[in-house]
Amino acid sequence: AILRSVRKGVQAPCRCFGASTTPLGVRHVVRNAALVVVAVLGAAAELQAGPARWEGLLVAMLSGLVCGGLVSVLDDIIGLFQPVQADAGPS
Questions:
Q1: I want to staple 5 with a disulfide (CB 3.0 to 4.6 A). Which of 10, 17, 59, 62 is the partner?
Q2: Around 53, how many Cα atoms within 13 Å sit in the side-chain half-sphere?
């Protein structure tokens, strides 16, 4: 749905992880594709590995929480590195 909206040029804000004013864009498509790849790789690794141990589960859960938290604020993090636009002054 996001890819379709980006292709059509829809300027709707991305509200995937809460309120945001950032319009849907290529970075949202890339983010979702990366999440799918990570999920598929994790599932494939689990199917190959055998019985899970509690240490591995703990590391996986903590890693998932950290990565999920970073992904949920990705628009804010990207905004920190964008150049600040100069104020045009009073109108």
A1: 10
A2: 3
Work out the angle at residue 34's Cα, subtended by the Cα atoms of residues 32 and 39, and round it to the nearest 5 degrees: 95
Q: Which two tokens stand for residue 59?
A: 């590391």
Task: Judge whether 27 and 16 are in contact, CB under 8 Å.
Answer: no
pLDDT in tens, the chain (91 residues): 888 888 888 888 877 777 777 788 888 888 888 888 888 887 787 777 777 778 878 888 898 889 888 888 887 888 888 888 766 556 5
Residue in 34, 29, 24, 37 with CA at minimum distance from that of residue 70: 34
3-state secondary structure of 41: helix
Number of H helices and number of E strands within the chain? Answer: 4, 0
